[in-house]
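Supplementary Methods S3. Input chains for the assembly prediction are listed below.
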Amino acid sequence: MLDLAILGLLQEGDLHGYEIRRRLRDSLGLMANISFGSLYPALARLETAGAVRGIEAGTASPLATGAAMGSLSGELAALRSKRTAIARPKKSKKVYRITDAGRGLFTELLAAPATSDDARGFSLRVSFAKYLTPELRIALLQRRRTQLQDRLSEVCAATKRDDLDVYARSVVDHTAQGVRQDIAWLDALLAAERERSSTDLTNPNPGGQVMAPVND
Amino acid sequence: MLDLAILGLLQEGDLHGYEIRRRLRDSLGLMANISFGSLYPALARLETAGAVRGIEAGTASPLATGAAMGSLSGELAALRSKRTAIARPKKSKKVYRITDAGRGLFTELLAAPATSDDARGFSLRVSFAKYLTPELRIALLQRRRTQLQDRLSEVCAATKRDDLDVYARSVVDHTAQGVRQDIAWLDALLAAERERSSTDLTNPNPGGQVMAPVND
DNA sequence: AATCGTTGTATCGAATCGATACATCTGTTA
DNA sequence: TAACAGATGTATCGATTCGATACAACGATT
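Predicted structure tokens for the full assembly:
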């Protein structure tokens, strides 16, 4: 799950650990703060698997001019206004770049079965849904919808119980409300998706690339 | 966190592992299905700590004393009469009972600082809020409210970003909506709490509802 | 110059997950 | 009746994730 998130972020540019964490927090919006105790092992894992490559940015950076600066300049340009083209990272930063194998792993994980009751995994996949084909996108949404429907049945059954005190009942009611909200959101997404597929016959998958070959 | 949930459930009667899991799912409504890989270690943990006592209710249990079996049969009879259609305790079951030390641990955990961004822990505490004093109850709700307010600021900032595609934006928007919903829920709980403390001098908790049920 | 907050990498133990194994009881159907 | 599927029930394994902590360089404030 973290692997998918990391690969998805690196898909759009090289990043270092701290920045990945930040983007998971506010760019992807939802994920509770990922701890470094998860993040760094995950990065090491991915590097061992050959999905990413870590580049020490402490010395003369051999690749600092390309996509690396493209993604990092927004964050770092303000700090390094003195030097424009080449970064001068005195600090020991480790920038990670996705590999071709990593891109393959990403698409594989993105379309994966998406284990049962996982809200985080689902939101994450929707965040990266532009990398999916329209069919896989709809499949993802519908899978989640049936899951939520089942969940709603359970929670509504719990609502009917008469042995709950005010507080427990309030929690259950609020939970049911949240699930309904999620289902409504899904329905809106599905409707938009069908809308898009009906009007987009000439230009499917706009702005997204399923596989963009980049030399590595 | 799991310890708190287990102790809270055992507070209302002896249970065995499978049943604890079930109640966590639909009685408490919210928790994603707790895996047995968490549950049984947690029970062993609590038993080692002296917070619960496990009673073998199966065949040929050499350590089960006659006294233990005697009291156990009474408990099992009560349990069976309550849930005849659903649960039928027959053989090889291990029923857990909370101890006095466990009750102390429960109240201690229930009033604990409640680590930063934990939605599950909060809902769990609200579910058991009837065991809290009105002051601690309000403190719990207000603590959570400021957390959610901060969270909302972050998420709203993310909403303003212009580099998000439709899907990522939809996720962020929906997340923000969810946080607002949670805050509204908290406000309703807080209002009900103040209401109760002002009118409750003679008639505590008359089986009414905290808030108007939001049906649809 | 001293101190504080932010950025940044890293590791440790414990909690939790997801999968799996195995055994008993119940109801259905061949 | 026998076989089978499915719920109930306990338990453990490896891998993932969490929460706390340590450390270090830098910028800004005072």
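Strands of chain A lie at 15-16, 52-56, 94-98. Residues 59-89, 211-216 of chain A have pLDDT under 50 and may be disordered.
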